[in-house]
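During the no-cost extension, the postdoctoral fellow (Dr. R.K.) reprocessed legacy sequence entries with the updated structure-token encoder. One reprocessed record is reproduced below for audit purposes.
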Amino acid sequence: MAFSLNKKIYIENSKTASGVEFGNISNAVRKTFPSKKIITYKPNDLTVESIWFFLNHIFGNFANLKIAIIGSGNIGFKLALKLVESGAYVNLNRRDKILGFQLANTINSIKPKNTLASAEFYEDPIRACTLCDVIIGTGKTDSLIINKNMIAVMMKKGILVDCGKGNVTEEAINYSYELGIEVYRSDVTS
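Re-encoded structure tokens follow.
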């Protein structure tokens, strides 16, 4: 039993294993430990914040930046919204095109009305990356979703960020180095 927690406090359903509810472990912890000793965080939000701060440090200003987010799921959507609200134009790409269009439309619907920047969905990942200052891979771990062809169409002084851990092909990394494009990986592990 992890943390000596009472198994009865967990909800048994299809999203549990050995009585541990993956979607809301903080709720179970709160029932066992005093609230003063708990610091709650959401790993995906930490990832979004760290990439936003990193890009802010690199560019200093998001106005008129063009950023492609490839693999637009939970992290990609949250990051896209934050970047659009900060003034960057964001191109989204994901396998599910209906959801991709919905995500871009949602961002454009809820952003502040005076924000000029917007999100756009591209079914073709190469078109999504065309003339972008930044390409960010936010796919599942070890999903090779960014390739050399995408690097070839981005801005030559741009940067590449692997947020999904293993989203960039080796060929794309080598080609980025040839072009002088900086490559970064967002992760808390070594």
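The chain has seven helices and eight strands. The mean pLDDT is 87. The remaining legacy entries will be reprocessed before the final report is submitted.
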